[in-house]
């Protein structure tokens, strides 16, 4: 997803890395899984509520997945989705390919429905 961000006084085109976003979401889900497994296998200290730790993580993941879908469909501007963890770096030889979804113009969104 190509987007633009201001850097100082100049507008600089930026790319949102779908791969980095998905990797971050994967890590969040794995963290929630570790908490659940910790509770299941060894238990937690008395008074610790696993739901208070896992629920916010899963809520955040759900919101990011929802917004990623909106950006890919073009119903949400990509620049609203750009974050430091998904800021794409310039590709180098040997890098795995990443998915870049170009932003749709307002006219293209209107024409598609």
Task: Briefly say what this structure is.
The protein is built from 4 helices and 2 strands. With 113 residues, it is mostly helical.
Give your account of this protein's structure:
With 113 residues, this protein is mainly α. A hairpin with a 2-residue loop joins strand 1 and strand 2 (10-15). It has helices at residues 18-41, 50-73, 78-81, 106-112, and strands spanning 2-7, 10-15. The longest helix has 24 residues, at 18-41. A two-stranded antiparallel sheet has the order 1-2. The chain has a domain at 18-85. It contains 4 helices and 2 strands.
Key structural traits:
single chain; 113 residues; 4 helices; 52% helix; elongated
Q: Output mean pLDDT.
A: 76
Largest sheet properties: 2 strands, antiparallel
Please work out how many helical segments DSSP would assign. 4
Order of helices and strands: EEHHHH
Helix and strand layout, with pairings?
Blueprint lengths: L1 E6 L2 E6 L2 H24 L8 H24 L4 H4 L24 H7 L1
Antiparallel strand pairs: 1-2
Helix pairs in contact: 1-2
